[in-house]
Amino acid sequence: MKTKLLILTLFFTTLLPVFAQQGSPVARQLVTVRVTYQRWNEYRPWQKAQPGHRRFFGIVLSDHRILVMADYLQDATLIQVEKFDRPPRYPARIIHTDPQVNLALITVDRPGFFDDLKPMDVASQLQGNRFRCASWQSGQLIMASCRFSHVASRRNYTPYFRYPGLYFITDLKNGGRGEPLLDQENKLAGITIRQSNNQMVVVPSSVIQTYLKAVAMPVYPKFAQIGVGWQFNRGPAQSKYLGLKGSPRGIRIQSVQAEGSAAGVLKPNDLLLELDGHAIDCKGDYRHPLYGWLDFKLILNDGHLAGDVISAKVLRDGKELTLKMPLKNIPPSADLIPMTRHNQPPPYLLAGGLVFRELDVPYLRAWGDRWQEEIPALFRINLEMNGQKQGENRRLIVLTDVFPDQYNLGYHDLSQLIVTKVNGKTIRSIADMEAAFHHPVGDFHVIELLPGFNLSKIILDAKTFDVATKRIMKTYQIPMRIRLRKTAASKEK
Predict the structure, then answer these.
(1) 316 phi/psi in degrees, rounded to 5
(2) Which of 417, 400, 313 is CA-nearest to residue 348?
(3) Peptide bond into 88 cis (omega under 30)
(4) Could you report the per-residue pLDDT of 302-334, keeping only the tens digit for each?
(5) Does 14 map to a domain?
(6) How far is CA 247 from CA 234, 250, 274, in A?
(7) Are residues 197 and 73 in the same domain?
(8) Is 17 a member of any domain?
(9) pTM of whole model > 0.85?
């Protein structure tokens, strides 16, 4: 009898923490999300890599929505959600995703799924000095204390979008997977995106509020970017040269990107003094009412979205002007070397056994964790000049590999070479290459490479080109000869 009593006591003691957690508000506001994903093989772009798995967290919001980090949904083949970090797993679908701001919304369509869950309120701003971070670990709800450290401007892995990153010192272990940061009223103060040792980075609730506001609009406007190159205005000589009286302030505009909000508004050599009523100092910072001194580019996303209009005060040719700046979004595809493909497969072309593809950062990441140091020097140089070389349909085309055949003898060892022209035609995309191969130079195809290599041209026989390509595809079991990139225009059709 005593043995049975002991077993029952242990049994109920084990269950008690689970019941207590399921009844607590936070436990009903935090779900576990499991994603099965399958990336493309960057070296063999017609193939998929082995499937992988991700586990992270979702925050329950109103209207049966779950807030998650967008990058965890990349290449997803199956999305499942668990309540209370326990089976069963329910299939979920994506409602909306914005890779630039790295936020997304998913939902579960199963009737009754949200009945025992509770939406979490989003704080209007960061306030108070007591914060906690919630996480599910092995079926147990963990509440870890978080101590505010500092704020810094952060850039998402997708370019152009910057946000005020909140840094906290935390007791949480292995965080940075979308855990909610809670204020003392148990409202959502932010969502964690990174953790290294005991320091975590949080996207603040102000950004989340703006994102949710944008999603609720009839047409999602996206976030805005200014799109300028600029320099400090610390030196009194430069300040005087630009016509400014008194102490140096503002920043000198060096260049204006065609896709950005500044296009048609600011000009090179303008001294930008204010944006949206915020004075800009000589280092390019403005005083945020809550976070202190921050990068001036954050002004455009402080409650604003693309389509809004803000004011810009400049000193131009010695005269102060107040201009209207309609805010615009710079699409990631504007980069010469895009940081991400947003779930799109890599464009490529197999031509006479030579493999060409459009260069992007997912391909560069195949060099490993230290890819920025390991990639070829010419790739690195162009990556650093990304913001200066833009255009929706402009890409670097790279010869990545050669499938050996008698047809391409002499070129079997070539790889990682940048193509400039094919048959006299300038190449800016795989579509350009495909078109150029229809117009040989006499009896030959002439592929020109970026200067700086011992080999500057590849010459292929045009008469046997198609036959050789088909033979090589059959020999090496390559199912598709070409894949074109989906441009913004083609996506809308």
Answers:
(1) -125, 120
(2) 400
(3) yes
(4) 889 999 999 999 999 999 999 999 999 988 777
(5) no
(6) 9, 10, 15
(7) yes
(8) no
(9) yes
Write down which residue in 299, 326, 353 finishes a domain: 326
Per-residue confidence band for 262, with pLDDT thresholds at 50, 70 and 90: very high
Q: What is the CATH number of the domain that holds 418?
A: 3.20.190.20
Q: Where are the beta strands (DSSP E) in 113-187?
A: 131-137, 140-155, 162-170, 180-182
Reduce the DSSP state of residue 318 to 3 states and report it: coil
Output the CA angle 146-151-152, nearest 5 degrees.
135
What six digits make up the tokens of 173?
A: 């272990």
The 3-state DSSP class for residue 493 equals coil
Give how far Cα 391 sits from Cα of 31, 255, 334, 362, 428, Å.
Answer: 41, 15, 5, 19, 10
Residues contacting 399, CB < 8 A, separation 6+: 354, 355, 356, 414, 415, 416, 417, 418, 419, 447, 449, 458
* Pair (313, 213) in one structural domain: no
Q: Is 198 exposed, middle or buried (0-12, 13-18, 19+ CB in 10 A)?
A: middle
Residue with tokens 């990349």: 74
Q: Which amino acid is at 108?
A: V
Quote the radius of gyration of the chain (alpha carbons, Å): 27
Of 220, 250, 274, which closes a domain? 220
Q: State pLDDT tens for residues 137-192.
A: 999 999 999 999 999 988 876 667 888 999 999 999 999 999 999 999 999 999 99
| Domain co-membership, 185 together with 93 | yes
Number of domains in the chain: 3
Q: What is the pLDDT of residues 45-79, one digit of tens each?
A: 999 999 999 999 999 999 999 999 999 999 999 99
Give the CATH number for residue 235.
2.30.42.10
Contact at 8 Å (CB) between 434 and 380?
no
- Is 211 in the same domain as 287? no
Give the domain CATH number at 208: 2.40.10.120
Domain limits for position 74: 24-220
Report whether 92 contacts 108 (CB < 8 A): yes
